Amino acid sequence: MQRNTVQRTLILETVRAMHTHPTADEIYAAVAQRRPGISRATVYRVLGNLSEEGEITRVAMANAPDRFDFTLVDHAHILCERCRKVFDLPVSCIPTVSEDGFVVKRMRVTASGLCPACAEEPEPDSQSNFTQ
Q1: Which of 37, 109, 119, 121 has minimal Cβ neighbours within 10 Å of its Cβ?
Q2: Contacts with 23 (C-beta within 8 Å, 6 or more apart), sequence order
Q3: What is the dihedral of CA 7, 11, 14, 16, to 10 degrees?
Q4: Among 34, 29, 63, 54, which residue's Cα sits nearest to residue 44?
């Protein structure tokens, strides 16, 4: 386990304060506001260490930057395909024992779709730019 440095403590506090599943770049920007001399490489390295140590969760996203989550209990994530925000998704609908008896100990599920706000908006292609 890594010793608690000022940088490590600041980065962990920042991730725990951000409830938006931030990217490493977003975390770096927030940390740099409080500690301007910190390097991007330090933030990335510490985020990797924190996720390996189980202090935070790295959420891998297909075709998008990884996100980081302070919530350690098992849960899934859903990525809005339009606004690119990530939301928690309860895993109560996913069985913990498969039909053939395989016991699920841990899972990482990421779904994609539209968040409620984006689902209410018309599709960009469905609006005509022509006026008559």
Answers
A1: 37
A2: 65, 66, 67, 68
A3: -130
A4: 29
CA of residue 13 relative to chain centroid, distance: 16
Burial group, residue 110, by CB count within 10 angstroms (0-12, 13-18, 19+)? middle
- Look up the pTM and report it: 0.72
Spatial CB neighbours of 51, under 8 Å, sequence gap ≥ 6: 57, 58, 68
Condensed to tens digits (0 to 9), the pLDDT of residues 122-132 reads 876 655 444 44
Q: Report the distance separating Cα 31 and Cα 4, nearest Å.
A: 16
CA nearest neighbour of 96 among 82, 107, 108: 107
Q: Report the distance separating Cα 78 and Cα 84, nearest Å.
A: 10
